[in-house]
Amino acid sequence: MKASTFFALVCAGFCLILASGCSLKPAQYAASAVDAIPEQADVNNNSSLEQLSAWSDAFYSAANRSNRQEAYMLLQRIEGLASAPEVRGSGTPVGWQAFDLSLQAAKKAMPQKGTTTLWYTEAARLKLASDAVFRPKSPLWLQYQDILKDDAQRIRTSWQSQSEDRAMAAKAAINIYGEHVDRLEVAALMQRDAGSIEAVKERIGYMRGVVAAVEKGQMRPDSVLSALDSLTSAANALFRDPNLAGEATAAEVFPPGVTVGQQRHGSMLIGEMFIAAFVMGVLGFIGWRKYRDDRNGSVPISRNKL
What we know:
Elements (H helix, E strand, L loop, with lengths): L2 H20 L3 H20 L1 H18 L3 H15 L2 H4 L4 H17 L6 H19 L9 H17 L5 H26 L2 H22 L6 H18 L7 H5 L8 H37 L10
Helix pairs in contact: 1-13, 3-4, 3-7, 6-7, 6-9, 7-9, 8-9, 8-11, 9-10, 10-11
């Protein structure tokens, strides 16, 4: 094989590898890198927050097993560590006030009989709150958005059943919704404005009042669904990240109807087409050289051998 042909094959192989690499989705790669860096920074630089999260997880597990002795020991550790200035530097003052109230509520309920459910709920609140300050980019409490959507659908289904006990079923579903909101409340206060969570709790109370009023004939039945829509809207606002409000401004740079992802995909597509054209040109040149040599009926001999 001639040196030029070998070189062309090497270039073609290199370009094919490069083209394969360019097929990676840039948005996915960027998201992975962004997610990995803060997570590593949390482990390296926030050991106190990591310890708080670990103890809160252990406290929640002990509460789940109804192990009062272990839970009380962990609760004391959490209380001492949560008062450290480096820990209080994360989250919000309102969130830490709610955290302290949950601590005190758990300590008060733990020695009493028949209060396992109460301090189990406080353990869940502390676990979610500790996780929110330790992993602010991907906190667990945000997963409750889907749970609340299921709760809202359960309320809607119960009310639209047209059965005689639909009001009772709707009240039970609203109570479940309220319990889930109570569970995420402290974590939400660590990352959101207090008004956001208060709006959700206020609409839950309003829904209960509307159901009771409909039962008494004071309001129309469709008022329940209107109140549910209002509750869902408030919940969606709670889970919406306030730091992403500037995305609409960035989108104005691109042509109408074209998103950032589409713009990036278009640029990558142009690059891939250029590389593909180059590879096809190299392969075509190799094929033409082979065809020419075969047509002459012999393999070219180096002039050095003459």
